[in-house]
Amino acid sequence: MKKKILIFGAGAIGRGFIAPLFYNKKYEIYFADIDEKLINSLNSAKKYLVGVTEKNNYLKKEIIFEKAFNLKKDKINFSNFDIAFSCVGPSNCYKNIDYYKKCKILISCENDIDTVDKIKELTSNKNIFFGIPDVITSNTAPRDFLKLDKLSLISEKGILVVEKNKFNFPFPIKAVSKEFLLKHWICKLYIHNAPHAVAAYLGNLKKLKFIHDAMENKKINKIVKGCINEITEGLIITNTVDKSFAKYYMNKELIRFSNKKLFDPISRVAREPLRKLGKKNRLVRAISVGMFCKKKPINCAKGIMAAINYYDINDEESKHMRLLINNFGKRYILEKVCGFEDNEPLIKFCLNQKI
Question: Is 0.85 surpassed by the pTM of this model?
Answer without folding.
Answer: yes
